[in-house]
Amino acid sequence: MRATQERVGDVVVLTPQAVNELSRHASMWNDDLRPCTLEEHSWNGSRFASLWIGMCLCLPTYSLASGMISLGMNWWEAVLTVLTGSIAVMVAILLVSHAGTRYGIPYPVFARLWFGTRGAHIPALARALIAAGWFGINSWFGGQALDAILLRVLPAWQQLNAHLGVAFVLFWAINVLVAMRGPQAIGKLTQLSAPTLAVAAIALFVWAAASAGGLGPMLATPSSIHGPQFWAAFFPSVIGVIAFWATMALNIPDFTRYAKTQRGQILGQVLSMPLTMAVFSFVGIAVTSATVLLFGKALWNPVDVIVRFPAPVVVIAGLIIILSSVTINVGANVMAPARAFENLFPSKITFAIGVLVTGLLSLAMQPWYMLSTFSSYIFVWLGTYGAMLGAFDGIAIADYWLVRKRRLDLAELYSPSGIYSYAGGFNVRAVIALVVGWLVALAGIRIAPLHFLWVGGWLFSMLGGFVAYWLLMRGERSVESEEEYEAVTATA
Asked: How far is Cα of residue 299 from the mean position of the Cα atoms in its chain?
């Protein structure tokens, strides 16, 4: 058996001969879906830290702990909850990240491994629809922020008919145009935004502390729930934080495929995301507590705070908020759907076209209508899609770590009739495991004593999919032995 891939340090790349042969399969291959070359494995740990810092410093993170405070937690309990959920989801993110770094493949191609060459469209499009929904929601929030800032600095803006709609379209267009420049441009954006947003967060915190007379008055509100009441609020809140990043736990290979080493991407992610989430949630709590003292009411939206400053400050702060909103939107909500649509017709759909389709789909989902109709939409949205995506996470982790033990044949992922085509391109066992994972979570809705299964939807759906897939895949012929893997893998 001729070697089709080569192992160089932490990464595995296709041989030049394999690339020449596989590039003829237009239905499976294009320049965005192919494995990375050795030169393209260029991201170090700081690049991943910048990615996460840029995405975490956003409006949703700022106000994430507000719901926990309203449940009766004090400031440190809320921050600890955010940190706990962030660490938990980071474990899943790292388990999936490894495959992206080692084999240089994007999420839709990774999904071919466990769902089949055609079945991969199921997890890819499921992730895409959720991402498009979030793209629309974040664009609507960003448009509202842009509208509020323009109303403050441009009095004539008020005279414009449908000024909020115009601001939304402008913000939406900015996101689409930035994202169309591609993954590497998105990575450069996060390198710019991370330090800028960090400085802005520090400045906002210092202003609040100085204006409110120190941290003591800002953080004086005690907890109003204790014992069983606290734990009853803590568990669903942690699951909510996990669901906040459940999407990235699936498509993180879209980014880690560019990593130089496993150590670099692991340290870059571990040392940035959980800590940034906790610290920025603390900033949100502290600043909001200060607004109660300064303005007589809690202002959880930072836009409501900055519009009270002089116009020059509003302009600068407004640009920073827009940068923050664009960073998380293009980083977390564009990559996956663009790749998923590209994977449908690799020979016809490019990444840029995939981005445009994502943007148009987000408009079709009418985020303004959904948010105005359902007051608790975000919480329902988080819980529902978290439960749905959990099963996919469990299947992906079980396949890569337990079933295949990190061994796969890159060339076969791009072959229409290869070992990962299963039965007609679908791995029926993965579909069954997916249904099992969903049913575990849904049992919490139908059976009252098991309601905790739905409250912890992502966790229990993931465990159900994980165990079911692992058991169903025993004896699967596509699983390569160590000898078979070594036969197709040369060592540099």
From this structure: 27
DSSP 14: E
Q: What are the phi and psi torsion angles at 42 (to 5°)?
A: -120, -5
**Secondary structure letter of residue 404 according to DSSP:** S
Q: Is the pTM of this model over 0.85?
A: yes
Strand 5-8 and strand 11-14: the pairing is antiparallel
Decide: 157 and 315 in contact? Cβ < 8 Å: no
Letter for the amino acid at 51? Answer: L
Domain tally for the chain? Answer: 1
Q: CB-hemisphere CA count at 13 Å for 116?
A: 16
410 pLDDT exceeds 50? yes
Query: 313: how many CB neighbours lie within 10 A of its CB?
Result: 13
- At 312, the amino acid letter reads P
Residue among 430, 410, 110, 458 at smallest CA distance from 256: 110
Q: What are phi and psi of 12, to 5 degrees?
A: -120, 130
What are the tens digits of pLDDT across the range 168-200?
Answer: 999 999 999 988 987 777 777 878 888 888 898
Structural domain of residue 168, as residue ranges? 5-491
Task: Provide the edge-to-edge strand list for the sheet that holds 11-14.
Answer: 11-14, 5-8, 489-491
CB 152 within 8 A of CB 184: no
d(CA 188, CA 186): 5
d(CA 193, CA 54): 6
Structure tokens at 152: 């403050």
Which residues in 239-322 belong to E strands, given as ranges?
A: none
Look up residue 474 and give its DSSP letter: T
Q: What is the CA radius of gyration of the chain?
A: 23
CATH number for position 431: 1.10.4160.10
